[in-house]
Specification:
This protein is an all-alpha fold. The protein is 47% helix and 0% strand. It has helices at 7-16, 40-48, 60-78. It starts with 6 loop residues before the first helix and ends with a helix.
Amino acid sequence: MKNKVDLDKIICKFKEHNIEVAKPVFLPLDKYYYGRFVCQNSKNFYYTTISLPLYPELTETEVKKILNVLKKVLCTNNTGD
């Protein structure tokens, strides 16, 4: 995979700001079907995607905090820190 992302590091950065993010699925989807087929896109999503907080009670202040932390994390991740 070209652009390998360290999701665990990114998740930890969010936790430092008391924001819980997670991998959206537990395993790439083809793992649930015991090798009967390969779903390359699900593997790509598994290794490069996180789920940000998303629920109706999220306040505008919380959304702004999440976005600010996301900007910091992305900038840090791009510089190799």
